[in-house]
Amino acid sequence: MALMEISVIPLGTGSTSLGRYVAEIEKYLVEHNIPHTLTDMGTIIEGEVEELLALARKLHEIPFKAGAKRVYTALKIDDRRDKEVHLGTKTESVKRQLGEMA
């Protein structure tokens, strides 16, 4: 299992607001029951690497379908093969370590 952080940014839309494009991506993820967490700077998605890469392509297309003429997509993938990684695993580990330091 891997984690992908993706930011899909439409450019040249005539507005500095991206909310409607982000909402379309969020709607797609919810409708397809894709495990994810929406953050202020992007969306973190859990899945197998092959599936995440295919999904990144689909998410990249959503702003074009909504009328954008140019889209910039940035993604990071954390593919750990020695143990299962899920949404929240990293933050839970840090919180445990902070508790041990107190």
UniProtKB/TrEMBL annotation:
<dbReference type="Pfam" id="PF01910">
    <property type="entry name" value="Thiamine_BP"/>
</dbReference>
<dbReference type="GO" id="GO:0005829">
    <property type="term" value="C:cytosol"/>
</dbReference>
<dbReference type="InterPro" id="IPR002767">
    <property type="entry name" value="Thiamine_BP"/>
</dbReference>
<protein>
    <submittedName>
        <fullName>MTH1187 family thiamine-binding protein</fullName>
    </submittedName>
</protein>
<dbReference type="InterPro" id="IPR029756">
    <property type="entry name" value="MTH1187/YkoF-like"/>
</dbReference>
<comment type="similarity">
    <text>Belongs to the UPF0045 family.</text>
</comment>
<dbReference type="InterPro" id="IPR051614">
    <property type="entry name" value="UPF0045_domain"/>
</dbReference>
<feature type="domain" description="Thiamine-binding protein">
    <location>
        <begin position="4"/>
        <end position="95"/>
    </location>
</feature>
